[in-house]
Amino acid sequence: xxxxxxxxxxxxxxxxxxxxxxxxxxxxxxxxxxxxxxxxxxxxxxxxxxxxxxxxxxxxxxxxxxxxxxxxxxxxxxxxxxxxxxxxxxxxxxxxxxxxxxxxxxxxxxxxxxxxxxxxxxxxxxxxxxxxxxxxxxxxxxxxxxxxxxxxxxxxxxxxxxxxxxxxxxxxxxxxxxxxxxxxxxxxxxxxxxxxxxxxxxxxxxxxxxxxxxxxxxxxxxxxxxxxxxxxxxxxxxxxxxxxxxxxxxxxxxxxxxxxxxxxxxxxxxxxxxxxxxxxxxxxxxxxxxxxxxxxxxxxxxxxxxxxxxxxxxxxxxxxxxxxxxxxxxxxxxxxxxxxxxxxxxxxxxxxxxxxxxxxxxxxxxxxxxxxxx
Length: 374
Hints:
This protein is α/β, with parallel strands linked by helices and 374 residues long. Helix content is 42%, strand content 15%.
């Protein structure tokens, strides 16, 4: 691991540290997608090419309504169209003005850390300083056999490649030895990022070891909360901040990534989202040996204590404000796509999230006494 020195700001477009914690009365809101494949008018899955073009349209709406960030996740399976997030994000960069562009996540274990840096450094240049990368081990494992990696090396692949990436990110000559790829000897990696180090997060699913590793590198952390109560993750948030402090690292932002959907009313949101959630949940559940789900599991996940941020703008805003209070989250990114949820409904959900939910959250946080925000 390396200490990262401050680089001089050379572009007026690069302002401040995009991964620093935000004030106690603030939470930054964004959206993300895996490019879930929805259906055409005849009920057949759309072509991946059409879905990818839809993702660009969805990002344009997110930018237009003032959301902070747009994330695109990496998968290698038929039901998700995005396998190369940085290429999709580069297209989005040309169609948007202000929104930050990140991966959600980049599966570092089955990629080359040098190439990951190069691709996102390129995206950062083309987007005028708006790129971020979220590194993860991957809860879906299709990329491992696809690229010739042994799942038995799941842990060591991530550990070694994260070490390489961290060295490359310093923009100094890299020396490294390990067992998962060829050694590096004083090699410099280009292009360099303009004015600062490449903003980099680590995605964590909820293991203490992953939390401690993230803090030991001094990187901001994304908690993926897709099940259970968000409050259950408070020990991980506390452990992360405590480990940063104990290691003498600067405070970093904590982000939360959860599925969600916004409609005019709670009833409408639940009814529109449920069939797509159920089909996806049971398909993936069957692959992983889970039992079938039903309405009860869905409603428990969507209630005020659950991990699904589904409902009217008022309901979703209340859950986001609660998240700020329980975890001290600096960001919340809602995965707005869900299986075959139609493109038009996703667009409307994004629009409501930015135009209705975000102002409600800002107003409610402004009214919460400072000693109750975290």
